[in-house]
Amino acid sequence: MPLVDIVIPVLNEEKALPVCLDTLKKFLSVDCPYSCRIMIADNGSTDRTPEIASYLSKENQEVSWMRIEARGRGRALKQAWLSSTADIVAYMDVDLSTDLSSFPALVRSLDEENFDLAIGSRLMKGSLVRKRTVKREITSRCYNMIIKSMFLNKFSDAQCGFKAMTTKSARILLPKIHDNGWFFDSELLIVAEKCGFRIKDIPVTWVDDPDSRVNVIKTAKDDLRGLFRLRFGGLARAVREING
Q1: Rounded to two decimals, what is the model's pTM?
Q2: What stretches of 88-198 adopt beta strand conformation (E)?
Q3: Domains recognised in the chain with CATH numbers
């Protein structure tokens, strides 16, 4: 039975974090057959998040936390995943927008089906998306279409905050992933697929968070810059470095 580290990256989430931990712990104890630990990756918070994360880690043996001073979700995930001693590393957003019932399938695809990465998808058959604004839905679908037109990739949803990978794969891939922000997910998947790593798409139920702090327009611009960086040299360089 593999050991799984689940990372929750947080930035100023003093209210959401305790709720997330309570819900996640209950799910793992009742509905998940795998041995899991929870790691809170505090990504430069300036509110009471560090204090709360420290308290939660002291009160729960299966919970730990780390502080990353420089902001950027990609940076937090890299540091947390590379420090892991588990067999599998995963992450999910603190708002738990993705239904946790899909989590065992992520782990099973790595443990039993020999995939290297597993990702939640809101865009494949069998997925269910609720309460999402038209603006965000169109932006997401257009973005993933752009990726497919540029890289002919097979994975369906680059941005869903619900992913897992083997620690072995993480240690090979992460040092070669340039982006430290929101584009991290896309770059990781594009590089991994082009290097021959096997990626499993899992349909998920996803409920939009109306309090999301993601700046859709700014994020879209940053993502496009990242795609062009990969298309014009970045991807080829990463593939050479990983595959020799």
Answers
A1: 0.95
A2: 88-92, 117-121, 128-130, 162-166
A3: 3-243 (3.90.550.10)
